[in-house]
Write a structure and sequence with these properties.
alpha+beta, Rossmann fold, Dna Ligase, domain 1, D-amino Acid Aminotransferase, Chain A, domain 1, 3 domains, eight-stranded antiparallel β-sheet, 16 helices, 27% strand, globular
């Protein structure tokens, strides 16, 4: 069993990992940047290592310093959290080469999934439905024009190595293709060092669902239901719920079976999600996120399991086959959870923070009065989660929790979240991914 853990991340996810590790009796060491010297993660960890200056490339993505810090402090394992190096196969390989355990999939699995074109091809080989598009990369404008004419507009130009909302653009007319290809390729090259593109048909107003899974080294793949992550800004999720009530039960069974089949083929180890788009009672594979997701608390509240703990156990070689009870499916159908991500709109210092409470409310955060929201990192301030016995009740509880929350000194997206939660289309569960556009225009 792992007894010491180096956390190569920051913010609320670092705090979240520390709390689970402490309950498991695991010593924690947090790597931090000079900008985060006063962060909550630094205050809570058993030990710390400064990784470098504020810029992420020099600290949270500084592979050499992270590994040196983990070895210096006598850690057995490295947890990459989310973002930064969490899906980086070279980092995972370096961690393992230095005798440390990487809390995540094997490097070869990350390598296979890091290329979205290869992931689509693998799904096709396994007879998992994919969105119509190019069979491989699109290298010229003429190739893009040919695919666009074949599958019909609108289309999506996507970077093979994309993620986090970067390297993706909707193209509605052939005349827009040339400029769009130049933009997406340049953005992808800057963000990921790879400008390779492919094309997919753009689905109008679909639902975005993802299956949560945890797999161990013995080949067991545990399924923890589906989350609905349709509401996004620039492909960044801001509201998530479970179960995904937009999907019929029989379709859910097929989606789950396909997700398990894919992870077994990849010999996947750890926590991950398989993402799908759902439209007109049909589903299409999008990608695999080979890490813990920001929205994992939604699932935890429904299934009553600590996914970070399971992730650590899987990496430590534990057999997870007896972790999830046989009545787990029944449990998932009786509980509902909803998450709102509260983000800062601008950097600044928090002067006051009042967190909501009461029955059925959970707050995951790293902020406190006096905390400075840095311009260098993700704008996430807190994740507000409510859970209840029905979708209607969980929405009402979220409305109450949002009204109780107060963050002084900075601008946040709280008002937008309140609009979403009180919107009639959201409440009636009849919305698609155009909901935010409708709210903004209204």
């Amino acid at each position: 069993m792992i007894d010491s853990l180096f956390i190569a991340n920051r913010g609320e996810i670092a705090v979240r990992i520390i709390r689970t590790a402490r309950e498991l009796g695991i010593r924690t060491v947090v790597g931090y940047s000079t900008e985060d010297a006063n962060s909550l993660g630094v205050k809570l960890a058993d030990d710390t290592v400064c990784l470098g200056p504020a810029e992420a490339i020099a600290s949270y993505m500084n592979v050499r310093n992270i590994i040196a810090g983990a070895l210096l402090k006598g850690c057995q394992a490295v947890h990459p959290g989310v973002g930064f190096l969490a899906e980086n196969d070279d980092f995972a390989e370096r961690v393992i080469e230095n005798g440390l355990i990487f809390i995540g999939p094997r490097p070869e699995t990350l390598r296979a999934l890091g290329n979205k074109i290869r992931a689509r091809q693998l799904a096709t080989e396994l007879s998992i439905p994919i969105i119509p598009g190019s069979e491989g990369s699109i290298d010229t404008l003429d190739e893009a024009i040919e695919v666009g004419r074949e599958i019909g507009y609108p289309i999506l130009l996507k970077a093979s190595a994309g993620g986090g909302g970067k390297g993706i653009r909707i193209v509605r007319r052939e005349e827009e293709l040339k400029e769009a290809m130049q933009f997406v390729s340049k953005e992808a090259m800057a963000a990921f060092g790879d400008g390779t593109l492919f094309v997919e048909r753009f689905l109008e107003n679909p639902r975005h669902v993802e299956v949560q899974l945890v797999a161990d080294e013995k080949g067991n793949v545990l399924v923890f239901g589906e989350r609905d992550c349709t509401i996004q800004i620039n492909h960044q999720k801001i509201v998530e719920e479970q179960p995904a009530t937009c999907i019929e039960r029989e379709v859910k069974k097929r989606i789950e079976a396909d997700a398990v089949k894919l992870l077994k083929e990849l010999h996947f180890v750890g926590a991950g999600t398989v993402e799908f788009l759902y439209s007109d009672n049909e589903y299409y594979f999008m990608e695999v996120n080979p890490r813990i997701q920001v929205e994992h608390p939604v699932t935890e509240m429904v299934v009553d399991k600590d996914l970070i703990a399971l992730q650590i156990m899987a990496a430590g070689g534990k057999n997870l086959s007896e972790i999830f009870p046989s009545d787990g499916e029944e449990l998932m159908e009786k509980r509902y959870a909803l998450e709102c991500r509260v983000n800062a709109l601008k950097p600044g210092q928090i002067t006051e923070f009042i967190a909501p409470g009461g029955f059925g409310v959970r707050v995951d955060t790293h902020i406190y009065p006096g905390y400075f929201v840095s311009p260098y990192y993700d704008a996430l301030l807190l994740k507000l989660i409510t859970f209840a016995e029905s979708r209607g009740k969980v929405i009402e509880r979220m409305k109450r929790a949002l009204e109780e929350t107060f963050i002084g000194g900075i601008e946040t997206n709280m008002e937008l979240l309140k609009k979403i939660i009180t919107n009639s289309e959201f409440r009636s569960n009849s919305y698609g991914d155009k909901l935010l556009k409708i709210l903004k225009e209204g």
